[in-house]
Write a structure and sequence with these properties.
Number of strands: 15
Strand order of the largest sheet: 10-11-12-13-14-15
Oligomer: single chain
Radius of gyration: 23 Å
Helix content: 25-40%
Largest sheet: 6 strands, mixed
Number of helices: 17
Shape: globular
Length: 415
Amino acid sequence: MSELSLSLNTLRNLHLYAQGLAEPYQRKATASDVVDCIRQMSLLQIDTINVVARSPYLVLFSRLGEYQNHWLDDALRNGEIFEYWAHEACFIPREDYSLVRPQMLAPDNMGWKYSKEWHDEHRQAIDALLVHIRQYGPVKAADFNVRNKKTSGWWEWKPEKRHLETLFSCGELMVKARENFHRIYDLAERVIPGWNDEVHYISPELARQRMIINSARSLGVFKAQWLPDYYRLKKIDIKTMIAQMLDRQEITPVLLAGTQERYYVHHSLHSLLEKARAEALIATHTTLLSPFDPVVWDRRRALELFNFDYRLECYTPEAKRNFGYFSLPILQQGALVGRVDAKVHRKENVLELKSCYQETDVKFSDKKLNELKKSISRFAAWQQATQVVVRNQLESWRHYWGEGWRLDIVEGENG
């Protein structure tokens, strides 16, 4: 039987179905949908940049439409998700705690995230901090006085902050909650009650295998070399793991039409393969994406799958930026069609689009521009903005949108 051959557009759409981004959310979101959405992605990357919505909230909005931000905070506080290092700092479903526990117990290869030398040098102070938390309850870094007000970066954290991060990386402390997005640390036994290493611990090898399986499911469609990056795994025998998943019929090999490029489709998408085979699988969603969305966080994958050359430029000197400080990719009907450099002015209730760019091979019809305008309006309304102001956009966008608009959201519209 010949191997199934699929177009690049169909592969993209299968990936977006796996990520919950192929269609607008079909109903009004609830609190439980937040946790289900994180399960679908396996990981929700955390970033603190707050020019628009902070990244984890934006990633959820892209999939769920309008929802209550505090539902994510509540899920962390209630223990439905937890926080640890994965792709980077991530929210992770509670049931996957066993996957990262081996890393907690052997943190020496975590680079800047954990320093054995610091731990050994400050053992007495770190142990005293643990005693304090056990006796008096959770703490945050701000509870301690700043002793050196000339600090300028994470490498110059006050000692207590480094102590807390050290204990976090080695799993003795966990994040119980966040207050104004600042971590509140508590003993791991209080955050994950009932955990017992002697009963629940799995080997590092099994943990990595399960992470690769999660990655395959959450990507939906992938090349073998894309899998390790999802959890930032090193020294992975990916050929063996692919062979094992094939033997278990967890994945199906396919070819990119007209080439010998090998992709794999996860079995959770098999119900869509008939449509995919007929090239009848359609993506209809239009939304803005976070720079840390799983669809684009692997820049090489975004380039290969979507022909989207993307880089976050907030750490680039202003004069050298091509697209702006915090450009958000635009997803429309299965393609990454452009990007907008956005900023929310909260006091004025204004969403400012500092610049708008479309990809060189993209042409916007009036209908697509109208869909994009509605999508941006929904995003603005979710951010409690009442006006969108466009500062510097393409001439076609200027003609269609003007310099700015008041929001006219369809009542009850979601997605």
